[in-house]
Amino acid sequence: QVQVVESGGGLVQPGGSLRLSCAFSKSMFDFDAVGWFRQAPGKARVWISLITPGGLTAYADSVKDRFSISRDSPKNTLYLQMDDLKPEDTAVYYCNVRERLVWSTNDWGQGTQVTVSS
Predict the structure, then answer these.
(1) DSSP E strand stretches across the chain
(2) CB atoms within 10 A of CB 9
(3) How far is CA 104 from CA 13, 33, 62, 111, in A?
(4) Beta-carbon-side half-sphere exposure of residue 66 (alpha carbons within 13 Å)
(5) How far is the C-alpha of 82 from the C-alpha of 89, rounded, in Å?
(6) 8 A C-beta contact, residue 66 and residue 48
(7) The pLDDT of residue 94 is above 90
(8) What residues does 49 pair with on adjacent strands?
(9) What is the rounded distance in angstroms from the CA atom of residue 85 to the CA atom of residue 7?
(10) Which of 56, 62, 76, 106 is most buried, taking the most CB atoms under 10 A from its CB?
(11) All residues at 6 or more sequence positions from 50 whose CB lies less than 8 Å from its CB, including other chains
């Protein structure tokens, strides 16, 4: 089991940027991937990005070319740089871990709210 704490959310205007952080209680290299999800009001939680121990990254089409995932391994911290934000990016953002190709159902944090509005 792992504890995660997301931070960095806030209110930003369309076209603006934010960087989210996720602190893990153990090494990210203990998992076959770590990643970000988001849940918009009234909608299901969806995957948006991941990074593997080898550094491979992947993005959902909705955020590709605007968001960038990275990590600071010694600090056990995951980041999500979000640029050119749009109102449809408004959601609670969560990080999670994947083991044997299955995302955890038990290790969700409290999330961090991102609101994109003028």
Answers:
(1) 4-7, 10-12, 18-24, 33-39, 45-51, 57-59, 67-72, 77-82, 91-99, 102-103, 112-116
(2) 18
(3) 32, 11, 22, 15
(4) 17
(5) 9
(6) no
(7) yes
(8) 36, 59
(9) 17
(10) 76
(11) 33, 34, 35, 36, 57, 58, 69, 98
Residues whose CB falls within 8 Å of the CB of residue 27, separated by 6 or more in sequence, listed in order:
73, 76
pLDDT tens per residue across span 33-77: 999 999 999 999 999 999 999 999 999 999 999 999 999 999 999
The token pair that represents 64 in the structure block: 């590709």
Query: How far is it, in rounded angstroms, from Cα 13 to Cα 17?
Result: 8
> Comparing C-alpha atoms, which of 50, 52, 2, 8 is closest to residue 24?
2
Give 37's strand partners: 47, 94
Shortest CA distance to 90 belongs to which of 110, 113, 108? 113
Question: Tokens in use for 60?
Answer: 């959902």
